[in-house]
Amino acid sequence: MATRFALMIVPAAADDERTHFTDTFRSVDPKAPALSIGELSTQRGDGIFESIGVIDGHPQQVDAHLARLANSAAICELPLPNIAQWRQAIAEVVLHAERGESVVKLILSRGVEHGPMPTAWATLAPAPDFSAPRERGIRVVTLDRGYDSGVPERAPWLLLGAKTLSYAVNMAALREAHRRGADDAIFVTTDGFVLEAPTANLIVRQGDTFVTPAPTGGILHGTTQLAAFDYLAQQGFETRYEVIPTDSLAHVDAAWLVSSIRLAAPITAIDSVPIPADPALTHALNAYLLTPHD
Amino acid sequence: MATRFALMIVPAAADDERTHFTDTFRSVDPKAPALSIGELSTQRGDGIFESIGVIDGHPQQVDAHLARLANSAAICELPLPNIAQWRQAIAEVVLHAERGESVVKLILSRGVEHGPMPTAWATLAPAPDFSAPRERGIRVVTLDRGYDSGVPERAPWLLLGAKTLSYAVNMAALREAHRRGADDAIFVTTDGFVLEAPTANLIVRQGDTFVTPAPTGGILHGTTQLAAFDYLAQQGFETRYEVIPTDSLAHVDAAWLVSSIRLAAPITAIDSVPIPADPALTHALNAYLLTPHD
């Protein structure tokens, strides 16, 4: 959906204790040129981002998103974000949200080549209509991520666990899923464990326990997965972080891909094996996720 | 070095048989905003690129670079580039080169989100002074790329072999090399074979034979490596594409990282093990690479 509002941000140092950052913001026409061709985000995907769901103008789970942005910056050795500044930028862009669902995107790039500082911006756009995947569900395929489970710890330069702008592989995995007649993909390790989807986290149900792969090992810690676990715990279910063997996926009692904008999409089949549905729980979970919360 | 000239390009279809593409070019101020925040290159590193060396205004090995650009486009399912159009764009930007060494960069992005077509541009900048690494050599470390040798064939969605804009990992590997007191890195597989450097190819000497890792298996086929092999063959040496076990690196008779702009940088140490130098051959090889050729 077309971006409605865009704010360029001059990033402040993490320890800048100003209370107002308004003079570091500059709104720009989302369709007009705003970035120079020297941008390292564009030349090398060298930067990080967050996508935040907005419900009736309320940005969801801002703390969790900003904590993850800071974690991504640390992994990528970018200057740590000033949390107060980003919080004010989010507050500024959501003023342009209409009723219903929107999405705020935050981008922190390493900056212009040979330039003095990072480049940063925030945008607001209406969210796509995801009622079909939420209600009717999605078919997924498992795709080899090429890594064994030991790689993230062994090779931190592979930046697993950071939400970088280098998403060409994530986009290619979605194209491969579509080519196979599916809607989405689940990455798996070469040694037989489940990781995450290209732009979502997996939650599976085993009896009355809900499990997601441990967010060690280079899996992005999903903000929506955190919210879903909060809801499930409130309902008296057990929630756990565990390694999930790929071959156990055929035997789960239900499964969802959860992400900030599409929210909880129930999985109807994994590699063509039907997965049981739980429409009542899916509906209740999405109703919770669609309620403004922090 | 600061970009001297930038040309935005409206990409023509690969089969567009026009002879003149001048009206698809528009020069822009390299420092001024030229790209919108909806650019997928900047949001997702979703695009491909080439860096071409320019000697006294002559772009080196344009055919090989454009063939690789087309191959990257095919792997990434981008519209295939119109080779005649890119050739004219290169000819246009090199008009702004001074004597000595410059670099032309070509970028083909998937375009603006929800936009109708890819975005493309070409830039010209003076090349950095690489006389020190060419003459004094570089220290390198081997870094785990996380993949075994079978991954590129098994998982084409990982885009190995495409020169994509998603280079955050390549940049992180260079930072890791610097942290270890080295100048550059060589990626190796988890099953013990040599791949490539983050922005260069490896050539090793074993007696009178020169070997580079086979450009199957997800290694970018280096244009400068091709030129170096041409030169070495002219000198009566044998050249070969072969798998190179990582543990054989300690026993090579000489080694170089070769790339389009830095050209042949002799390796003086790999993981702190000294590598024999061949200053005469290195000098002759760089003299050849610095001679205008196609």
UniProtKB/TrEMBL annotation, chains A, B:
Pfam families in the record: Aminotran_4
Keywords from the UniProt entry: Lyase
GO molecular function: lyase activity
Presence of the UniProt keyword Nucleotide-binding in the record: no
PANTHER family for this protein: AMINO-ACID AMINOTRANSFERASE, AMINODEOXYCHORISMATE LYASE
Homology family: Belongs to the class-IV pyridoxal-phosphate-dependent aminotransferase family.
Protein name: Aminodeoxychorismate lyase
Gene source species: Microbacterium sediminicola
